[in-house]
């Protein structure tokens, strides 16, 4: 039996991707076979097409760090044929073949069983972006800085997947003083409708003169950009405030001092969703079943594309401005078992 897959090969030091028909392998012990209904596009997925990105080290590889679908065969007693499941991160699409294929095999320990209200489409909409946003939020939700629903909170990179989910989650939880940062000023009406109170350009946050401490403006900063923007935001965090960092689209270098952290007691939280423990993942999924699931008007923006449209969209992802999530729809109907 064959399946269609987006396969990335390394040719003359350049990643080359194309949709191919490949044979289904034998299912390994403790692994599960899933008919893919949805995948999605994340920044890391797009980097698999860039030379020397370091995301993929062994070729050929099928990328796609997220997927959701139906179990069609299982060598793991926790999963039965017909179960609806989702796989996110955990080296899917990086060290093992991922979700950009019609049928995917993964270790059972990499899967979450969807046995509540969340659909396969919901799970793909959450994906790595939603999981990252939720993990970051749980790091600070019970702190004194977040106790006041009118606390000054800033989200950078709000038009991306993680930032969009952060806005959705915070608005859903009732926070009313949310500043969001984007260069796409034409999206201001949509961002305000989704719960932002202020929309500003990155340039508005740059300090006239670089200095370790500036006027205290934000009690919590969710940064998805890094680089110079984060360098300028750190001095503006209030005493005993928090920084939640989860992205480096603006660069991974940081020019700062220790002074904001020792003179204002600021806490820096890094977010890693790839190797987030399975037990804690289950708690995050439970939150998406309850308090974390936004109302329709607050859901992050998304578009659906077909598998045939995946490659051009993936190639353009890091080159063009976009808003929200891109879901890849493989199959809409439950297969017959």
From TrEMBL:
Coiled coil: none
Keyword Oxidoreductase appears in the UniProt entry: yes
Ranges where the Enoyl reductase (ER) domain occurs: 17-328
GO molecular function: acryloyl-CoA reductase (NADH) activity
Pfam families reported in the protein's UniProt record: ADH_N
Highest taxon in the source lineage: Bacteria
Keywords: NADP, Oxidoreductase
E.C. numbers: 1.3.1.95
Organism (species): Lapidilactobacillus gannanensis
The protein's name in its UniProt record: Acryloyl-CoA reductase
